[in-house]
Each structure stands twice: as C-alpha cells, then as structure tokens.
Amino acid sequence: MQIIDGKAVSKAVKERVKAECEELKAKGVTPGLAVILVGDDSASQVYVRNKERACEECGFYSEKYALPASTTQKELNDLVDKLNSDSRINGILCQLPLPSHLDDKEVINRIDPIKDVDAFHPVNVGAIMIGDYNFLPCTPAGVMELIHSTGVDVSGKKAVVMGRSNIVGKPMAMLLLHENATVEITHSRTQNLAEITSGADILIAAIGKAKFVKADMVKDGAVVIDVGMDRDENGKLCGDVDFEDVKDKCSYITPVPGGVGPMTIAMLMQNTLTAAKLQNGIDK
Ligand code: GUN
Q: d(Cα 121, Cα 102) in Å, to the nearest integer?
C-alpha cells in the first residue's frame, strides 16, 4: 500500500501555477481572486485563510470580503455585481454554506460564468456535462490529479463514487467518465452498498460519514480516495474511510488530513490562472 501525498501533489500544482503566473505578469496580467465570506463559521474562516495564503504563494492579487452574518441578499448581490465588473478580479468565490437567510443559488447564478472559479454556475456545470469546459470544480479536479499521480490508468476501470452532491459526487462521476472509467454512483438509498463498492478498482468516498468505509467494502488492490472531512468520536479530524482498517487492502490511499484537502485549493489557483488567461485573450 502507498499513501498518496496530497501536500506534495498540491505543492507541485501550485509551483506550476506560480511559474505560469510569472509568465502572465511579464505580459502585464496579474491573476486576481476575490473571496467572499459571510458570517463567522469557523471551518469557513480556516478555508478562506488558506485560500488567501495560496494566492500569496502563487503570486496572485487577492481581495477578501468578510461580511457580517446580518448581510442582506441585496448587499451580497451588489458586491458580486461590483466584482463582476472589476477587471483586476478574474475569479470570484463565495464560500458556502451561507447563513440560512441567504440564497446560495442566487449568488452562484449571479457570478459571471467566466469568473466562476468554483465551476458552480449552471453554465459551467452544463459545460462539464458535455466535456467542453473552462473550469473544473476544484475538489473533483484535485481528486483526478491525485489519481494521475499514482500512474494508474483510469480507462476501462470500474470506478464507484459514494455520494451524489452537486459539489463533489456528480461532477466527480463525470470526470471519471471523461477518462473512460465505468462509473457507478452510490447514495443513501443504495441497496447492497458493500457489494457495489467492493467491485471498485477506484473508490471515491464523499459522503460525510466518519470512518464509514471498512475493509469489507474495498476490493483488494483498489485505489481509495477519501474526500471526507469528518470528526471521529474524540472530535479528531478524519475521513469517510476507516484508514487503519482499509489501508492494507488498497494499492493507494489518501490520508485525512493531507490528501484531498490541499488539492482543492491548488485547483482553485489553477482555475483562477485559467480565468485570468481567458479574460485577457491569452490561450489556455
Ligand atoms: N464550501 C465547501 N467547499 C467549498 C468549495 O469548494 N467552494 C465554495 N465556494 N464553498 C465551499
């Protein structure tokens, strides 16, 4: 069994982005990212801080908007409108979830699709479906990078995606399909779950249930990718996969933390770079 080192792979992606950023700067273009955070959710604050730090590492311009929980939909919409028309800003990210009086969908739909570095706008989601896209959603794109880092060829393999969220499960399945995997998606109503997951050459867990995936659910020699960010019975950060139970059955496995997490931010940097190129008429 080999552990896939998400920190090392993400560092390599950020270094590639930084080098390309320097080339862009020589042409007078500095990629710019605006991050909007509403309210005081502590996990969101950590994510936003990490995104700012990654912008610095890559040489990007960044703006952070930390708005109070009392922000109205109109105020949020006005901010998105302002950022849409600001030429220094190439990417706009509104950290989700928003406080319950605000509408995630309204904000996502308002971001100009060419600045939608999360790839959550319906135009970008549709583009992914037909395989003709500018941006890939950050977490699934990061998972594909991790799989590529193993050297395992996805084509023709059986891939099982556990979870059907719009942010991870559904686009994840689509990216695996684009690389010619045979893909199955499981969810909370799936019957005979272990039978399905234990047939997977590539198993992606994105269900948000601490240590749910056990050895009897995993095929010998499988590649196991854990998207979970959960807390165990002692409040310690863990994934959807019971790492200790499963590790000896896999060929490759991602740890939590240090697996998928750092990749999401690296791919956000990649998308912001792509956005800057697109908005300045530079080939991708
Ligand atoms: N909340 C959790 N993950 C994400 C993400 O990838 N993007 C945004 N905008 N919010 C999130």
A: 17
Instruction: Give the type of residue at 274.
Output: T
**Nearest-atom index, ligand 1, CA of 44:** 1
Taking 80 as the threshold, does the pLDDT of residue 284 lie above it? Answer: no
List Cα–Cα distances, 92 to 12, 226, 234, in angstroms: 24, 27, 36
CA distance 269 to 276: 11
In this predicted structure, what is the pLDDT of residue 283?
83
| Ligand 1 pocket: which of 93, 139, 269 to mutate (most atoms within 8 A of CB) | 93
Alpha-helical segments (H) within the chain: 6-26, 42-58, 73-84, 104-110, 122-129, 138-150, 169-178, 193-197, 243-246, 260-279
Q: Which residue has the tokens 């020699």?
A: 221
Instruction: Say what the pLDDT of residue 174 is.
Output: 98
* Residue owning tokens 């309204």: 106
Name the CA radius of gyration of the chain, rounded.
19
Predicted confidence (pLDDT) per residue in 14-63, tens digit? 999 999 999 999 999 999 999 999 999 998 999 999 999 999 999 999 99
Residue 63, helix vs strand vs coil? strand
Average pLDDT on 255-259 reads: 98
Global pTM reads 0.96
First to last CA, the chain: 36
Ligand 1 binding pocket (C-beta < 6 A) is: 93-96, 118, 138-139, 264
Q: Which residue has the tokens 């193993």?
A: 150
- Any idea which residue has 């060829």 for tokens? 153
Give the closest residue (by CA) to ligand 1 atom 2.
96
Pair of tokens at residue 30 = 């500095």
